[in-house]
Design goal:
six-stranded mixed beta sheet; alpha+beta; 12 strands; globular
């Protein structure tokens, strides 16, 4: 009989996660006693499929914290290829999360929300869905704004988009490669305030995350 596969079967650290940290991702914030029982059930039955939207949100909150704790040593994270700047998402997780955008958002929150870049090239990552055959599904761009009034304007496929500091936006880009032009006010991305570049697209598209520093 095949081993059951679940959202959390790749993690052996669930019992070490902070209930307060999990609760911080949720609105309204649940009682910690309830969350403790919920997490215990997920540890015992990792293959369980969430039955309600609230269950799904709790599962994604747990996933965020499990991902954050998944790399005990620098360079050993199974979900990040730092050298190639790839975000690696197991395709099997889509059996338990309703859509690719929600799943990717959880990964971005876990790895990039408080990301302290060492080089400007770390402002752009390729998103890869890992399966028997890996699939590039898009990119994530991390602009850095100088103040609360920072704005990034993006042109992609003749459409204009505006991302303000503190916001996250998903921009459709179904092609394998997409050319974008961008301009920032009070900020930079890839070391520049203005540029035109190619990024990977796919079934997800381009995620621009302006919530960081």
């Amino acid at each position: 009989m095949p081993t059951p596969i679940g959202l959390f079967d790749s993690f052996d650290n669930l019992d070490q996660l902070s209930l307060e940290a999990i609760a911080a991702w949720l609105k309204p914030v649940p009682q910690l006693d309830y969350l403790e029982d919920y997490l215990a059930n997920r540890i015992l039955y990792p293959q369980t499929i969430p039955q309600t939207e609230r269950d799904m949100q709790i599962d994604l909150a747990i996933l965020r914290e499990a991902l954050k704790a998944s790399s005990p040593k620098p360079g050993e994270n199974p979900f990040l290829n730092v050298a190639l700047r790839k975000l690696l998402i197991p395709a099997k997780l889509l059996n338990f999360v309703p859509d690719l955008a929600s799943l990717t958002w959880a990964f971005i929150d876990a790895f990039f929300l408080d990301h302290q870049r060492k080089e400007w090239v770390e402002d752009l990552w390729t998103i890869v869905l890992m399966d028997d055959i890996d699939e590039v599904v898009g990119s994530v761009m991390l602009p850095h704004f100088d103040n609360t009034g920072g704005v990034m304007r993006v042109i992609l496929m003749n459409k204009n988009y505006e991302i303000r500091k503190g916001n996250l936006m998903l921009i459709p880009c179904p092609r394998e490669r997409c050319e974008i032009a961008y301009k920032l006010m009070a900020g930079k991305v890839l070391g520049k305030t203005e540029n035109a570049i190619e990024v990977y697209g796919g079934k997800l598209g381009l995620v621009v995350d302006g919530r960081g520093a």
